[in-house]
Amino acid sequence: MDKIVYLDNAATTALDPMVLEAMIPYMTEFYGNPSSGYSIGRQTRRAIESARKQVADMLGVKPTNIFFTSGGTESNNTAISAALTDLGCTHIISSPIEHHAVLHTITHYCGDAKVTRSFVKLNASGEVDLHDLDEQLAERSAKGIKCLVSLMHANNEIGSLLNLTTVGEICERYAAIFHSDCVQTIGHYTLNFASSGVHFASASGHKFHGPKGTGILYVRDGINFTPFIHGGGQERKRRAGTENTHGIIGFTKALELAMENQVKDQAQIETLNKQMREKLNALSDEISFNSTAESLYTVLSVNFPTGTNTDLMLALLDRNGICASGGSACNTGETYGSHVIAALNKGLAGATIRFSFSKTTCAVDIDAAVEVLGKILEPVKAVDHSTAAIPAD
Ligand SMILES: Cc1ncc(COP(=O)(O)O)c(C=O)c1O
């Protein structure tokens, strides 16, 4: 295998060398604990607070609205826990295609009989039925039930998008708390949380060329919440644990680079996404797409013809150096298929594969992937999948 063609950027992205460069001094030279009162502690404290201000400026909010976390999963857990524990929400409205970091967290809290849940209806592209959301909120509000609405900004498998401002307005009408998992959009769009109507928003550094294990939770002004992680008084007593200083610096540098180059990177990625769609259309008229032209531009979710099998196709792609995903990367190794594709209810009888792109993707990557797909499509269809084992390398 000569070269790896990485088309799984919604799972994670490569660390930008400039991000690494910005992080290194905070692992070597500036190692003080930010809670220490002496000079080298104060130095890292200043770096963290300046990073917080930079992140806040980029998202149109105040530094006090930003809490550094270990990533999207922790931010989602913190927001959901805060809405139930501190803000009086007893019903959660979400969608069946949320990331497991939201879905499984909700299931956890619904084990307690005091908390109930419901899903909003989705259209065939996975977009939220706003009329249904409005009706569900109206019904609960009339009964005096306070709701948490947790809906992702962009779906990580198919790329369907949510209009944050419209959902924010609906939530406001019924005094509901609105949390959005923005893990796939922060760093890819210019966002202003002050005007978006969200109470909580989650982000993760490794989705835009930052380090893994870093993230933020945006919390709207006036929301007082108890910590999800208990211990020391870090993050203004809302998130215990010695700050991941180099991670925070890396997250901030990655967001800075993403925002500086957002327009250029989006144009490049959109072009590649469109090219791949066209080339796949030319390959077979039995290929269809779950992503639309309006979806998140980094994702292309492809349905292959009847008779193809996701696991076998992914294995053959991998053998040819192409990295892609059958659904969310977090599912790799699990035995069931994608809950997102299942929820679309399209009755697909073939493989579904997500290709996802970033600023590091180039046209030759698309050509290489389509060439391999062209070679494997017919042989895969010819295999009896009831008995087939994935061939070893
Ligand atoms: C939409 C979404 N939410 C949450 C997460 C989890 O983020 P993290 O890996 O930072 O915990 C992911 C990562 O796959 C994601 O795509």
Q: Can you describe what's shown?
A:
The chain has 393 residues and is α/β, with parallel strands linked by helices. It has two domains: 125 residues, Aspartate Aminotransferase, domain 1 (Alpha-Beta Complex); 244 residues, 3-Layer(aba) Sandwich (Aspartate Aminotransferase, domain 2). α6 links the parallel β5 and β6. α1 packs antiparallel against α8, α9 packs parallel to α12 and α10 crosses α12. The longest helix has 22 residues. The protein is globular, with a radius of gyration of 22 Å. The C terminus is likely disordered. It binds pyridoxal-5'-phosphate.
CATH class descriptor name of the largest domain: Alpha Beta
Uncertain runs are 328-335, 389-393
CATH architecture of the largest domain: 3-Layer(aba) Sandwich
Beta fraction: 5-15%
Number of strands: 12
What is the N-to-C succession of helices and strands? Answer: EHHEHEHEHEHEEEHHHEEHEHEH
Evaluate the radius of gyration.
Answer: 22 Å
EC number: 2.8.1.7
Family: Belongs to the class-V pyridoxal-phosphate-dependent aminotransferase family. NifS/IscS subfamily.
Catalytic activity: (sulfur carrier)-H + L-cysteine = (sulfur carrier)-SH + L-alanine
Domain Aminotransferase class V: 5-368
Tell me the layout of helices and strands.
Elements: E1 5-6, H1 17-23, H2 39-58, E2 66-69, H3 72-85, E3 91-94, H4 100-110, E4 116-119, H5 130-142, E5 147-150, H6 164-173, E6 177-181, E7 200-204, E8 215-219, H7 234-237, H8 245-260, H9 262-283, E9 288-289, E10 299-306, H10 310-319, E11 322-323, H11 339-344, E12 350-356, H12 363-382
Parallel strand pairs: 1-11, 3-4, 3-5, 5-6, 6-7
Antiparallel strand pairs: 2-8, 7-8, 9-10, 10-12
Bound molecules: pyridoxal-5'-phosphate (PLP).
